[in-house]
Please model this.
Amino acid sequence: MTEAVERVQEGQGSLLLLAGEAGVGKSRLAQEGAATSEGVLYGAASNGVTVAYGPIVAALRSRLRSDPAALADCGALLPHLALLLPELGQAAAESERATIFEAVRCAFAHLSAERPAVVVLDDLQWSDDTTLELLAALAAPLREMPVLVIGTYRSDGLPREHRLRWLRNELRRDGQLEEISLEPLDRDGVEALLGELLPEEPSPALTRTIHDRTLGSPFFVEELVTALRARGSLRSGRRGLELVEQDEVPVPDSIREAVLVGIGEASAEARESAEAAAVLGPQLDLALAAELTPAEGLAELIEIGLLEERGPGQAAFRHALAQEALYAEVPWVRRRELHRRLALALEEGGGPSLEIATHWRGAGEEARAREALVEAARQAEAVHAHRDALRAAREGLELWPEDEAEELRLETLGRYGRSAELVGELGEAAKAWRELAAACERGSDRAGYAEAQRRLAAIYELGGERDKAFAARRLAAESFAAAERPAEAALERLAMADHHRRGARYGEAIELAKLAAAEAQKAERADISARILGLQGVVEAKGGDFEQGLGSVRSGLALALEHDLTPVAAELYQRLSLVLYDGADYRQAEEALDTALGLCRTGEDAGTEVACVTCLVYVLRERGEWSRAAELGRELIESETAVWVAEGLVGAIHAFEGKLSSARRLLTASRAVSAEVGHYNMYCDSTTSLAIVAAAEGLEDEAATRTRELLARWEESEDHHYAVWGIRWAASRHARNGRRKDAQLCASALGQMAAAGGHDDAVAALAQAVGELALLEGDADAAAESLSRAVELHRNLAIPHERAQVELRAGVALAAAGEREAALERLCDAYRCAAKLGARPVASEAAKEVAALGESVAQRLGSRAAASAEDVQLTRRELEVLRHVAVGRTNREIAQELFISQRTVDMHVRNLLGKLDCRSRVEASHRAGEMGLLS
Model:
C-alpha cells in the first residue's frame, strides 16, 4: 500500500485490489492509504443495487459536490461523460462503450492534473459488471497518470462466475495485478487493536477471550468492545482490563448480537434512524434519510460511530456487516413501509431506476418494481452496460404476469436478447429471439417475426450451428418478402447463397443469388445488387465457368464504384481475388486484396477486412512468401480473429517447412472447426496438410486415410478447382506407394476439374497424375513426358512450392528413363526452389535423389544439401565444433576458442559423431570433408 501511494506521488498510478473476508478491515486500510493524498474520490457498490458504472459515478460525483466545475475541461468527451453524470449538462445523443471508457479516463486525468488523486472503490463484490470491465480497461492508462485506484472486495463466498474473477485474470495476464490479501488478526494483532480501543491495556485473558470469540475479525473486535463497554462488562484487574464474571455478563456470540448490543443503549430516535438507515443500504444520502427519520437520530448514529460521513451529505455504515445485522432486525411491516417511502422519494428525485426497483420489491409492489427494472435495462443499454442491462431485463421479465403489457414485454425481451448476444450468453439470446419470434407469429407481425429469425440466425452462426442458421434465414427471407421489405429479403438470400458457397454447393447458391437479385432490383438497392453480382461471380468461377464468373464480379465492382460505395467495393475486390486465385493468377489476386484492404481501412467494414487478410495469407502462402503469410496468420490468431482459418493456413506452412509437431496441432484444430461449420475450402486445405504431415512422419496409412477423406468431400461438392493441389499431392503419394486404384481415382477427379475449369494448374496436376501412374506401370518414357509437361505448365504459375514438388518428380521420372543430365537439372531446380522457400522436406528429398544418381551433392548443390541428402542435421554450434575438430584441436582448445565450457564441447562432439555415424574424430573429419561441411 505504502509503495503504491509513493508511486502515485511521483506521477505513476496503478490499480490496487484489497481482498479479504468480511470484517478484516479492507475499507479502513483503503481509507488510511487514501488519507495520505489530498485528492480523494470515494465510491462504493451497494448490496442488492447494481447500478451501471455505480462505484465510478459515485466517486466522480464525490468530487463534483465540492467542485462542480472540476470536469468542465473534458472538451468533446464531456457530453459522453454526461450520460453517466447528468449534472454535467447535455448528454451525447449517441455514444459507444469505448468512448464512455475514454471519457472516464479523461475525467481521471483532469482530476489529477494539479495533484495526485486517490480513488477508493469499496465493496466491489457488489459492483455492476461494467465497472469491473472499465477497471480492466483503465489498468494500463493509469500507469501514465498520477491516479491510484484502490478497489476493495470480500473474497469469502465470491461466486465462481463473478466478474471480479475475470478482472483479476485479465490483470494477471497483462502483468498488472496488484493485490493485497488481508488475513484476520492474530492474537498479537488483536492485543494491539484493543490497546487503541480501550482506555487501559487489556489483560492477557481478555485478549485471549476476544481473539477466540471474534476469530481475529477487526470489525467484530470493535463491535464486541463497544457492546462490552456499553453493558459495563469490563473492569480493571491486576494485569489490565478484564471481563467481570462470565456468569453475570455473557459475551455476545456473533457480529449481529454485538451490533444490537451496541445500539441498544442509544436513544429511541437513534434506533429509529438506524432502522431507516439500514433499509437505505450500506451507503446513504443524508438528505434522503432525513425525509424518513429524525435528523437528530442520524446525528447520534454518526456520533456513536455506527455511521461515518463520506463527503458532503453522504454517509456510510462503518461496516456493511452492521447494516446487514440491523436490516435483519427491522420489523417486516416497518421495513416494507420504509422501502415504499424510499421508492417514492427516489422516483420524485430522479434516482437510479435499479435502486428504485430494489425498494419497490422490498415494499412488495412487484408491478412498480417491474416498471423500474424495465427502465433500468433501457438506461444500462443506452450506456453500453450490457451485462447490467441483461440482469435488469431478466429480473423484470421474471416479474411479468401473462397477457399484461405485451408490447412492452416484447420490447424488453428484445433488449434482453440483444444484451445476451453482446455479452456472449448465446443460449439466453437464442431463447429470447425464439420466444419473440413465436409471439410475433401469433400476432401476425411478419416484419417482427423476420427480424427475430434474422437475429436467431446470427446467434446460430456464432455458435457454429450453420444448418440452423440457414433455416432461420430462410424463414426471415420469406417473411421479409411477405412484409413487402424486398431489400431485407435480398440480404437474407444473399447470406444463404454465401452459406452454400462455403459448402461448395454452387448450383443452389446461384439459384438463391438470382432470387436475391430480383428482390434487390425491386428495392432499387444498387449496393445489394453489386454484392450479389460479386458472390454470383465467385460461384460461377468455382462451378467451372471462369470467364463468366470473372465478368460478373467485375460488373458488380463497376456498379459499386459508379455509386461510390466504398465498403461494397472493398468486398467486391476481395471477391475478385477469390476468382483470380481460383484461376491460379496469384499475382493479380494479391493486387486485388491490397486494393480491398486499402478500401477497408478507409471505412469501418471489419468483416471484409478480416476476409481480405485471411485470403491474403492464403495467396502469400501459395506465392511462397511464407514469412509474411505466417506473420499475418499469427496476428490473426493473437487477436482471436478468424483463428481456425489462420491456424489452418499457418499449420500448412509449418508442414511445408517440416515443423511437424506444431503443424499437426494447428491443422487438427482447424480441421475440427471447418468440418463442424461446413467450410469446404479450409476442410480440404487442412486435410491435405495433415496428410503431408503424416507422410513425413512415416504414417502412410494415416496419410492415405486423409487423402481418401479429401476425395470423398470433393465428390460431395460442386468444386472444380480448390481441391486441385490436394488431390494432385494425393495422386503422387498413392502412386509412389503402389496404391494404383487410389491414384486412378485421384487422376479421374483431376481430369474432371481440368475439363470443367481448364486452368493451367489443374491441367498440370492432371499431367503429373498421369505421369505418376505411368511411372507406377513401369513406362518411364511416358512418365517423363507427362511430368515434363507439368513442369512447363508451372513455369507460368506463381506457385513455387508445387513447382518444386513437380520438378522433383519429373527429375525422378527422367532418371528412370535414362536421361541423367536432364534429371539432374530438374532435381537441382527442385532443390534450389525448395531451399529458397525453406521447404526442408522437398529440398532434402531432391538432394537424396541427386546423391542416388552418383553425383557429389556438395559439388552440385553445396554443403547444406549434402548434409540434407544424408539426413545430417547439424546445428550451427555443432558445425563450428566440427571444423575445429577437423584441424586437430582438442576439446579444451575448442572450448577456449569458442568461449564455452569443455563439458559443452564434449557434448557437441558426441552428438556430431552420432549424426555422422563415425567412431573417431579422424573419421568424422574425413566424412565431413566428403560432404562439404568444412567449407
